[in-house]
Structure formats: structure tokens, C-alpha cells
Amino acid sequence: MSVSQWHNLVREGSAPKPLIRTPRYTRWGLAEVRHFFLGLTTQGASEGESAVIERAKNASRAAKAKRQAKAQTTGAA
After folding, report:
1. Which residues, other chains included, contact 32 with Cβ-Cβ below 8 Å and sequence gap of 6+?
2. Cβ neighbour number for residue 9 with a 10 Å cutoff
3. Which residue range forms the structural domain that includes residue 26?
4. How far is 57 from 2, CA to CA, in rounded Å?
5. Contact 14, 6 (CB under 8 A)
6. Which residues contact 29 (CB under 8 A, 6 or more apart)?
7. For the chain: N or C, fewer Cβ within 10 A?
């Protein structure tokens, strides 16, 4: 999870609010953060995560096909 994604979740109210927030010093409670991430793992893949997984699979298939095509071209020469 990126820092910007985390801050967006905090802003939306999905992630826990920081306990201490001063300029250049923001801290969250460990128990709250652990509980939040455990909740994410038990939820399963959301629609957005499923789309990312599908794009990664497609990219992997395309890269494999490209490697095979390159191997055939260099093997034939």
C-alpha cells in the first residue's frame, strides 16, 4: 500500500485516524493499524484489486508470448 493510498483511506474514514498529528509528526496506534490490515486480509479481493490482478496476469501472458516469439526468431537464425 502506498503512502498516498493510506492517507486517502484515512481521509475517507476507512483507515484509523492518527492518534498524534503535528507538523512532520504523525503517529497511529499499533493495535488499530493491525486490526485494519487484518480486516483487509479477511475481506478478500475487492473489485479494484481484482482488476489489478487481471491486468498483471495479462501482462505476464504477453511477456511470455514475446519471449517465446524471440526464442523462435533467434533459434531459426
Report:
1. 16
2. 15
3. 1-44
4. 21
5. no
6. 16, 19
7. C
